[in-house]
Amino acid sequence: MKRVLVTGTTSGFGLDCVRQFLAKGDTVIATGRNLSRRPEVFAAERALYGDRLIERDLDVANAEQRSRIARQAGRVDVLVNNAGLGHFGACEFTDEEAARRVFDVNFFGALALTREMIPALRESGGKIVNLSSVFGFAGFPLAGVYSASKFAIEGWSEALAHELRPHGVSVHIVQPGGHRTGFLSNALWSVVPSDQGLSAAQDQGLRSFQKRLTSRPRGPSAAGVAAAIVSLAHESKAPLRVPVGRDARMMSFLKSWLPKDLFQAVLFRMTKSGFSREAGA
Ligand SMILES: NC(=O)c1ccc[n+]([C@@H]2O[C@H](COP(=O)([O-])OP(=O)(O)OC[C@H]3O[C@@H](n4cnc5c(N)ncnc54)[C@H](OP(=O)(O)O)[C@@H]3O)[C@@H](O)[C@H]2O)c1
After folding, report:
1. Ligand 1 pocket residue status of 94, Cβ below 6 Å
2. Mean pLDDT of 259-266
3. CA distance 29 to 39
4. Which of 35, 101, 155, 230 has the most other CB atoms within 10 Å of its CB?
């Protein structure tokens, strides 16, 4: 049985992951922001699984908390870097503070925690599972900063996989498509100042996009992504990249097989029609 550390377990994929690892018989160090002040999150699992569930506070953007977790975790077979923050808005009007916040959580948090956990993972011959996205291999309009943070995860994970392979540690990248979690309601949304001419149409598009997505969450539940993470953790041979969801598999297929320019043309067409309809253009 594995001993697994998961970040960002208070909702969505992270929460489902903890449940599925526990149900499989693994021991889970479930971490989350202020988890100690949110005892309701794992009330049922605590009663059911006793000391196979270890709950710890971890804001991945907090260096002190990361070091404490790394010191106290003990043996770890699998690290799941799941904590993440969405961001939507036109690149032109995304302020630097929001961009840095997204990178601090999505990229630097995972990078720094992983660095601290590598000695334990090397000892266990363990695995690292990093959450990317379909946005991690295709740049979608109005999601430039979020896409950039996931492209960063992809490049770093690929390099890390090569570095750690000789040490018996494997690295995997999970690339979910759109799923029904707290992601959209928790995301940061940048808006366009009202006097921006043409870009105001884009902003109108973004606002109706936001309204549509958050009022009627769509896509499959978190269970499929959690199941993919759990099976990655248990398989002896697993691929570097695992797209999850029909949309992600289709985009991954197109990206792999279409000539580069054609892929960009398809992406432009898909997203242009979507956003100009939103903008009423
Ligand atoms: N849902 C999708 O369609 C989708 C698609 C592709 C990739 N993803 C990726 O999947 C991962 C999980 O997202 P989700 O869909 O499950 O969204 P979610 O329901 O919003 O869950 C995100 C989790 O990350 C946590 N988190 C945010 N900032 C944190 C921080 N600084 N330190 C520690 N935890 C933090 C949140 O905790 P709080 O409760 O404290 O905010 C929450 O537990 C993310 O990396 C996301 O980018 C999601």
Report:
1. no
2. 94
3. 15
4. 230
The pTM (predicted TM-score) of the whole model is: 0.95
Atom 45, ligand 1: residue with shortest CA distance: 84
On whether the CB atoms of residues 219 and 245 are closer than 8 A, the answer is: yes
Judge whether 190 and 90 are in contact, CB under 8 Å: yes
Number of structural domains in the chain = 1
91-122, pLDDT tens digit by residue?
888 889 999 999 999 999 999 999 999 999 99
Q: Is 49 a catalytic residue?
A: no
Q: Which domain holds residue 92?
A: 3-278
DSSP 158-222: HHHHHHHGGGT-EEEEEEE-S-SSSHHHHSEE----TT-THHHHHHHHHHHHHHHHHHS--S--T
Chain centroid to CA 220: how far? 16
Rounded to 10°, the helix 96-103/144-164 angle is 30
Integer CA distances (angstroms), 93 to 54, 99, 143, in order: 41, 11, 12
Residue tagged active-site, from 88, 146, 183, 275:
146
If pLDDT is split at 50, 70 and 90, which confidence band does 276 have? Answer: low
Q: Check if 62 has its Cβ closer than 6 Å to any atom of ligand 1.
A: no
Report the sign of the C-alpha dihedral through residues 189, 149, 240, 53, in that order.
Answer: negative
Q: 277 falls in which pLDDT band (50, 70, 90)?
A: very low
Question: Given the CA of residue 219, which atom of ligand 1 is nearest to it?
Answer: 3
With 60 as the cut, is the pLDDT of residue 181 above it?
yes
